[in-house]
Design a protein that fits this description.
Helix content is 29%, strand content 35%. The chain has 178 residues and is an alpha+beta fold. It has a single domain (3-133), classed as Gcn5-related N-acetyltransferase (GNAT) (Aminopeptidase, 3-Layer(aba) Sandwich), CATH 3.40.630.30. It has an eight-stranded mixed beta sheet with strand order 1-2-3-4-5-6-8-7, with helices on both faces. Helix 1 crosses helix 2 (50-62). It binds coenzyme A. Coenzyme A is lined by residues 36, 38, 99-101, 106-112, 133, 135, 139, 141-142, 144-145, 148.
Length: 178
């Protein structure tokens, strides 16, 4: 996968995860879940062992319609992007997207680089014809980000999430590959 630089010209690299990344990806996912209020689970709810995460990464890498990407700088993971492909004949052309960037690295172009890598992969994939995602309705930063990436708002799951005593609508966004 391509080597890229962010908006501040500091280099980062995007590559497929391997089972060796299991421990680091668990720590990263727990960290970003704590850092931002727009996640679909709480940090303490993510109880995945290193062995389970290794098996998950292996499964993702074996899958024809899934992808597990890592963005890293010289010292650490700065972002993760995944596509989880549909598991049935009738939805194997679809993938569910998730992107997380560590807070200190927001707005440096890393999310865009991950999305471009996913877009390139989807365009070449003989399977993927649609990518969708869910985002909290009050997550303006992410909605602007996905719109810029060509995603269209397709619907709203009213009260789709419950966070700290408050219901939040969840927006469904999608992009179709012809
Ligand atoms: C949303 C997210 C993935 C975007 O990634 P990023 O690396 O920060 O974004 P980029 O630097 O590539 O910016 C791309 C576009 O996103 C939007 N964006 C990024 N940061 C923004 C901000 N602080 N406010 C508003 N829009 C913003 C802009 O449209 C931007 O384009 P521009 O630079 O031309 O203005 C990232 O900020 C993130 O992980 N946020 C927290 C977790 C989250 O909300 N994940 C998505 C849940 S579904």
């Amino acid at each position: 996968m391509k080597i890229d630089g962010n908006k501040n010209n500091s280099p980062f690299r995007i590559r497929k995860a391997t089972p060796k990344d299991a421990g680091k990806t668990i720590l990263f996912i727990k960290k970003v879940a704590k850092e931002h209020p727009f996640g679909f689970f709480e940090s303490r709810e993510f109880k995945v062992s290193v062995e389970e995460q290794k098996a998950y990464i292996r499964k993702m890498n074996r899958s024809r319609n899934s992808l597990f990407l890592i963005a890293e700088d010289a010292s650490e993971i700065v972002g993760i992007g995944t596509i989880v492909g549909g598991s049935r004949k009738r939805n194997q052309h679809t993938g569910e997207l998730s992107i997380s960037i560590s807070k200190k690295n927001y707005s440096k172009g890393i999310g865009t680089a991950i999305l471009e890598a996913i877009n390139d992969w989807a365009k070449l994939s003989p399977f993927i014809k649609r990518i969708s995602l869910k985002v909290f309705a009050d997550n303006r930063q992410a909605i602007a980000f996905y719109k810029k990436g060509g995603f269209i708002k397709e619907g709203c799951i009213r009260r789709g999430a419950f966070v700290e005593g408050r219901f939040i609508d969840v927006i469904i966004m999608g992009k179709v590959y012809l």
